[in-house]
Amino acid sequence: MINITFPDKQVRQYPEGITGLDIAKSLSNSLAKEVLSVIVNKETWDIARPITSDSEIIFQTWDNNEGKHAFWHTSAHLMAETLECFYPGIKFGIGPAIENGFYYDVDLPGNTTISETDLVKIEQKMLELARQKNPVVRQDISKDDALAYFSSKGDEYKIELINELQDGTISLYKQGNFTDLCRGPHLPNTEYIKAIKLTSIAGAYWRGNEKNKQLTRIYGITFPKQKQLEEYLVILEEARKRDHRRLGKELELFTFSQNVGQGLPLWLPKGATLRELLETFLKKVQKKYGYVQVISPHIGQKELYEKSGHWAKYGKDSFRPISTPAEGEFFMLKPMNCPHHCEIYKYKPHSYKDLPLRFAEFGTVYRYEQSGELHGLTRVRGFTQDDAHIFCRPDQLKEEFIKVIDIVLYIFKTLEFKNFTTQISLRDPEDHEKYIGSDENWEKAETAIIEAVREKGIDAVIEMGEAAFYGPKLDFMVKDALGRKWQLGTIQVDYNLPERFDLEYNGADNQKHRPVMIHRAPFGSMERFVAVLIEHTAGKFPLWLAPDQAVIIPVSEKFNEFSKNVLNLLNNSDIRTVFDERNEKVGKKIRDNELKRIPYLLVLGEKEQETNTISVRKQGEGDKGNMKIEEFINLIRNEVENQLKEI
Ligand SMILES: [Zn+2]
Ligand SMILES: [Zn+2]
User: Which of 46, 299, 421, 531 makes an SS bond possible with 377, Cβ 3.0 to 4.6 Å?
Assistant: First the structure.
């Protein structure tokens, strides 16, 4: 018999060689139906794999990443099997599970290509094979046997992968007529897969290297229930409509120019207004919390980043250093603001009474990203962080954390992110060696974060071993309107940079001490944040943030004079108003401006001119009736004030 320990620390005895699935069955039928993989002593296993020694286990279902991954990874194998039916001689690269589904990189025989219409026939065949309920069988074999198998098949990519593996046993997984090199884990059989959608085809170089052959990448997603696929497709369609690249163009927020360079966004007037509003908003909040603005240049000497350690870590993959006519002088495009802010800290000696110092900067940084990785505003080569660095005493950490959390929560409230989760990343308790800083400081910092989060009444997941080597951190993940998760707002403690830059302050004991540094950027970067905001709101920004808050629509040219007067009055009252002067029907003008997501539409005609009023329509709410201009100004002001109200 072996002892199986469950997450709640309960221990039960089972016969040696029992599988995860059988353990699940012994607990409940519904669990047995839902379990997809099982974590055995921190390693994810097939639920059909025999457990032969005392183990700690955690079941993984569709609600866990590890469960989904086993499901999608099995689906990738099923797709590969199907592709081999249709395209004999096809060779396989890698086929991992990803965040939403899976893909497989394949080398099609001869001049074969796959089109979108082929995907439908592949889907159908996959379903047919899935229904055969073919068991997925794990086989542990020697490296030589594995090489022999894939050599006989002529699968050069798998051979390359196997050659890189360490000697010892290698696992293969077989279902139906298809065998793949794979670490697993997998579902017990193919029948779990009930709904399939192959979503797209792309080109992908073998191992991401442009010098290698370009393979065909086929993406797909599968579900245990047909209904889940249907729901997913609805969300996918909605996501397509909300795609920030599409809306950014339609709403004239930003653009890209191949002449300027890829990954370098150009902000159009409306986008620039939006950004400016966000910056002003954040500056105001930060000021209230004692931040001071600093400004640092876009480049810095290479030595600065050698000192900070950024060169050693990112140098090889960054923009090349800029040389000057002077001998041996090199500058880097700034990849991080932190080293600059450390130097700002050192501009004069500090006493313990000066701390905390909170330096904030909308600092633009440049990071090299491969062209294939670039994506709208979410992956760019130049971006502006809403950065700040807090230099404080160790005993001030908790209070500073609470303040940063307050700022983050205020931002979420004001920008209508109602769902968010938090994660605290701590040290690996079994390996203190890999972290910089004393045990005492780490304990202080970790306790400070945990207490700060608790005092704010936030439910945080604690992850051991997820901290950076230089300090623990707190992360916020928001869920957008479509339920997609975005990481925003990291608060990171840092013991490393103060050490490297030899930062100090005079303590009450008149001795030199090291301050602690906190990095924090609630938005992350303006670019990425705006992208998330566009997709979350579908471009319908809250009134306070809308680049245009109102549009004036005269029913005919006769009212242009009156319209211009109203326009001036509103703009002079700081209500961002535009005038639709086009010679078009009122109905069309209303529709067009609704598509531009302008919150208020003001229709002006005979009646309005005579009574010096405006007829107000609100986006999504319809007619609000006639009102005096003063009344409208107050309406807007109240609505904005309400949106910006503190919690
Ligand atoms: Zn696999
Ligand atoms: Zn930083």
Answer: 531
418 and 277 in one domain? yes
Is the backbone of residue 89 left (phi > 0), alpha (psi -120 to 50) or beta?
Answer: left
- For the stretch 538-550, pLDDT in tens is 999 999 999 999 9
Q: Out of 186, 270, 519, 576, pick the active-site residue.
A: 519
Residues 519, 557: one domain?
no
Q: Rounded distance, CA 548 to CA 80, Å?
A: 51
Q: Are strands 516-521 and 505-506 parallel, antiparallel or unpaired?
A: unpaired
| Segment 417-459, tens digit of pLDDT | 989 999 999 998 888 888 888 888 889 899 999 999 999 999 9
Domain co-membership, 481 together with 591: no
pLDDT tens for residues 561-601? 999 999 999 999 999 999 999 999 999 999 999 999 999 99
Q: Is the pTM of this model over 0.85?
A: no
* Domain co-membership, 481 together with 504: yes
Distance, CA of 115 to CA of 87 (rounded, Å): 13
Q: Domain range for residue 40?
A: 2-61
Give the H or E element holding residue 164.
helix 156-164
Sequential DSSP letters for 464-485? ET-SBTTB-EEEEEEE-TTS-E
CB atoms within 10 A of CB 45: 24
For 571, left (φ over 0), alpha (ψ -120 to 50), or beta? alpha
Q: What's the rounded Cα separation, in Å, for the pair 566 and 551? A: 11
Q: Do 237 and 250 touch, CB atoms closer than 8 A?
A: no
Please indicate whether residue 389 is annotated as part of the active site. yes
| Residue 578 φ then ψ, to 5° | -120, 165
Q: Among 197, 367, 513, 596, which one carries the catalytic annotation?
A: 367
In this prediction, residues 179-190 reach a mean pLDDT of 93
Residue 588 annotated in active site? no
CB 478 within 8 A of CB 486: yes
Number of compact structural domains in the chain: 4
Q: Based on the residue annotation, tell me whether 367 is a catalytic residue of this protein.
A: yes
HEC string for 395-430: HHHHHHHHHHHHHHHHHHHHCCCCEEEEEEEECCCC
Q: In what order do the strands lie in the sheet with 330-333?
A: 299-301, 330-333, 322-323
CATH number at residue 55: 3.10.20.30
Distance CA(82)–CA(97), nearest Å, equals 17
Is 519 marked active-site?
Answer: yes
Angle between helices 269-288 and 397-414 (to 10 degrees): 140
Under a CB-based contact definition with an 8 Å cutoff, are residues 519 and 228 in contact?
no
Task: Let me know if 387 is a catalytic residue.
Answer: yes
Q: Are 478 and 417 in contact (CB under 8 A)?
A: yes
Tokens linked to 263: 């990954």
Residue type, 427: R
Does 287 share its domain with 383? yes
* Ligand closest to the CA atom of residue 73: 1
